[in-house]
Amino acid sequence: MTDTQHFVEIRHAQKAYGDLEVLKDISLNVERGQIVAIIGPSGSGKSTLLRAINDLDALTSGEIWLDGVQVNKTLPHRQYEKHINQMRQQIGMVFQHFNLFPHLNVRDNVTMAPKLLKGISKAEADTLAEEQLAHVGMLERIDFYPSQLSGGQKQRVAIARALAMKPKLMLFDEATSALDPELVEEVNLVMKKLAEEDMTMIIVTHEMDFAASVCDRVLFMDQGVVVEEGPPEKIFRNPDKDRTREFLRKHLEGAK
Amino acid sequence: MDVDLMLRVYPYFLQAAWVTIELSVLTTILGLTCGTLGAAARLSRFRVLRIIGATYVSLIRGTPALIQLFILYFGGPQIGIQLDAFEAGVIGLGVNIGAYMTETIRGSIIAIDKGQSEAARTVGLSKMQAMRHVILPQAMRLMIRPLGVNINALIKGTALVAAISVVELTYTAQRYIGSTYRPFEMFLLSGVLYMVIIYVTGRGVAWLDRKARIV
Question: Boundaries of each ABC transporter domain copy (chain A) (predicted)?
Answer without folding.
Answer: 8-248
